[in-house]
């Protein structure tokens, strides 16, 4: 059967695909620190389950990953985390949450990293 309109190719709109990919690149919701928690950046791995973390309150803490999170968190230098300082020793803390790799944009958008300066 002869087509009335000739040969046509289906053209997909690439601008819509690029927009959806950009939206998927950043998380839409992030976890905010609760009372007694601060956001920090992993500076160095110290061995075992201990890390040196620079927190938004201007302190560098020696933090550990609690046993219930050991298999869940795979932390590298440069990762953003939420820590809870120890009540008896403010120079130490526990890591309670790890942000996804692409959440830095959202953290900066909500002014959670304003006091955290890059030293590298």
Tag the structure with descriptive keywords:
120 residues, alpha+beta, OB fold (Dihydrolipoamide Acetyltransferase, E2P), five-stranded mixed barrel, 2 helices, 5 strands
What's the short story on this structure?
With 120 residues, the protein is of the alpha+beta class.
Task: Describe the model.
The protein has 120 residues and is of the alpha+beta class. It has a domain at 38-109: Nucleic acid-binding proteins (OB fold (Dihydrolipoamide Acetyltransferase, E2P)). 15% of the residues lie in helices and 28% in strands. The chain has 2 helices and 5 strands; from the N terminus they run H-E-E-E-E-E-H. The protein has helices at 14-25, 104-109; strands spanning 38-47, 50-55, 60-64, 80-85, 92-98. A 5-stranded mixed barrel has the order 1-2-3-5-4. A hairpin with a 2-residue loop joins strand 1 and strand 2. The N and C termini lie far apart (69 Å).
């Amino acid at each position: 059967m002869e087509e009335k309109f000739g040969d046509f190719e289906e053209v997909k709109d690439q601008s819509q695909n690029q927009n959806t990919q950009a939206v998927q690149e950043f998380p839409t919701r992030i976890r905010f620190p609760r009372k007694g928690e601060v956001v920090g950046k992993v500076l160095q791995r110290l061995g075992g389950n201990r890390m040196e973390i620079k927190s938004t309150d201007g302190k560098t803490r020696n933090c550990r990953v609690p046993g219930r999170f050991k298999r869940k968190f795979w932390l590298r230098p440069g990762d953003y985390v939420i820590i809870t300082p120890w009540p008896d020793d403010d120079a130490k803390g526990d890591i309670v949450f790890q942000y996804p790799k692409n959440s830095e944009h959202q953290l900066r958008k909500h002014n959670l990293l304003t006091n955290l300066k890059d030293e590298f």
